[in-house]
Amino acid sequence: MRGQAFVSFESPEIAQKALKEVKGFPLYSKPMQISYARTRSGCCRKETRSLDFEAHKAKRLEHKKATRYTNPLKSKFRAKRQAAAMDGAAGAAPTSKRPNVQMPDEYLPPNKILFLQNLPENVSKDQLMALFSQYPNLYEVRLIPTKKDIAFVEYMDEGSATVAKDALHNYKLDGENKIKITFARK
């Protein structure tokens, strides 16, 4: 099915660890929903040789054909889709119940603009210029007048921005609070 994948692991322990680490991770702005498969995959059956693989495959295909139109979940989904189409024809726009989840800042792709958070309220543009100019190719520092605890620092290229980000992330500008530095969203 579209939007679905199966992943096999060497052991149940590795699968459990992967499930804990990746469950809910946003992929294309949607949190991944992860669970264990209800039955063993074909590749696992092939490797363990627990059953005759061809007989297993034939049985699965027969089951698929038999339940294609009688599956209650598919029937429910089809009914919802038809109701939404009827509402759409009546002028009401269909709404999604899925929350819009953004990718965590730590996983954003490299960018020449850095996003600074958790800055002291009294930080000045000159202080940030002095701090970030020790790394080459600094282009600009922008403070946000309405939000004193964030700023943007722009470099000429991604490589320079990455070096500065890695060096100054969690730096204590006022001796107390660590500044959080991530790549800005494009």
UniProtKB/TrEMBL annotation:
Residues 1-39, 112-186 form the RRM domain. PROSITE patterns: RRM. InterPro entries: Nucleotide-bd_a/b_plait_sf (IPR012677), RBD_domain_sf (IPR035979), RRM_dom (IPR000504). One of its GO terms (molecular function) is RNA binding. The keyword Acyltransferase does not apply. SMART domains: RRM. Keywords: RNA-binding. PANTHER family: U1 SMALL NUCLEAR RIBONUCLEOPROTEIN A/U2 SMALL NUCLEAR RIBONUCLEOPROTEIN B. This is RRM domain-containing protein.
